[in-house]
Amino acid sequence: MNAKWVYSDKVKDHFMNPRNLMREEDESGFDGIGHTGNIKCGDEMMVYIKVDPANLTVTDCKWRTYGCASAIASTSMLSEMVVGMTLDQAYTIKAKDILKNLDGLPDNKVHCSVLGDKALRAAIDDYYHKNGMEDRITTQGARVVCQCMQVTDEDIEHAVLDGARSFTELQEMTKIGTGCGECQDEAQRVLSEYVQKHFGL
């Protein structure tokens, strides 16, 4: 068996027994709703949060995910991690944090955890928008380059500043183009622009 396709016990547990799954259809009781992914590419995530306005703490997190075992397990784990965090803390959760708590994912499925943290940030941004706190939205104005993975031009710029110089390196850092692949030409163009802007290469 290829070791890269072995799921950890935690991944299996969260897939077989998902936590905080949104089973009811009524979304009206939630303070923030985030959506990311593209169902035609295989994975789509919706995250729903309730927030205590007194201390801006996440009190509940539900979700729906249409995708593979890794996508389900990742979102289930994320929903456990975020409850009790402040919105500022929850906003900083990255895919690597979810992977660590799951004891890793197969290399071919790492992009599934990337969707989870993006959907969470979208839900937090939605809460900020609904409550007149737009100044807290850090992704405002960013342009989405990869619809499947919800990678923005700002994400590409950050990757360049963190060392990405080739499309392969950009893909490893952001998982851009791992869905339908239609964004590759545009992603390479944006990558080149930021490399030229910051490093003159």
Automatic annotation (TrEMBL):
Example of a GO MF term: iron ion binding
Keywords: Iron, Iron-sulfur, Metal-binding
GO biological process: iron-sulfur cluster assembly
Keyword ATP-binding: no
SUPFAM superfamilies assigned to the protein according to its UniProt record, in alphabetical order: SufE/NifU
Domain NIF system FeS cluster assembly NifU N-terminal: 7-132
InterPro entries per record: BFD-like_2Fe2S-bd_dom, BFD-like_2Fe2S-bd_dom_sf, NIF_FeS_clus_asmbl_NifU_N
Limits of the BFD-like [2Fe-2S]-binding domain: 144-193
Organism domain of life: Bacteria
Protein name per the record: Iron-sulfur cluster assembly scaffold protein
Originating organism: Desulfomicrobium orale DSM 12838
